[in-house]
Amino acid sequence: MQNRRERLVAPVSWWVGVLAFALAWAWLLLVVAGTGAAVVTFVGVAVLTGAVVWAYGRTVVDAGPAGLRGGRAFLTAEHVGAVTPLDRVATREALGPRADARAWLHVRPYVDTAVRVDVDDPADPAPYWLVSTRHPEAVAAALGARPAPSDAPDQPTPDPR
User: Fold this and answer.
1) Tens digit of pLDDT for each residue in 28-84?
2) Were 29 and a residue from 22, 41, 77, 148 both cysteine, which residue would form a disulfide, CB within 3.0 to 4.6 Å?
3) CB of 68 within 8 A of CB of 62?
4) Can you state the percent helix, strand and coil of the chain, rounding each to 5?
5) How far apart are CA 48 and CA 66, in angstroms?
């Protein structure tokens, strides 16, 4: 198994949104207070909202033999159960109609794939972790992906008589 580390940086469109937001505020102050106030407002708003977007996109997903880290949380390898890489559709399903309110989520709206990691710890109230990643297969491989139990009904065991 090899470590897989990924930073979930915000996409370019979010940074364009930061500039558009700052420009809107600057335009508002240009009309009301003049050029100087508009420039100061543009810089201030751009710096503040840029810091928020930067902090939000600075989160790291780190998977390897020691376990899984999603942001500040860490799931040790001994508690990693079945690992399932999810494509875009499966991720949306897992976040919507098939979600469990007890699950631990580390998701970002601009990353449309994820990995589901079942938690093998009876003391942990979260049945699974759902973690955004741009490379779910690589994260699953780094965790030594054990397939999820089959949804097929169990075969009856023969009667020993």
Assistant:
1) 999 999 999 999 999 999 999 999 999 999 999 999 999 999 999 999 999 999 999
2) 41
3) yes
4) 40, 25, 40
5) 36
Point out which residues pair with 67 in neighbouring strands: 64, 76
Which bin fits 71, alpha (ψ -120 to 50), beta or left (φ > 0)? Answer: left
Backbone angles phi, psi at 20, to 5 degrees: -65, -40
Compute the distance between CA of residue 111 and CA of residue 130 in angstroms, rounded to an integer. Answer: 12
Q: How many CB atoms lie within 10 A of CB 85?
A: 19
User: 3-class secondary structure for 26-82?
Assistant: HHHHHHHHCHHHHHHHHHHHHHHHHHHHHHHCCCEEEEECCEEEECCEEEEHHHEEE
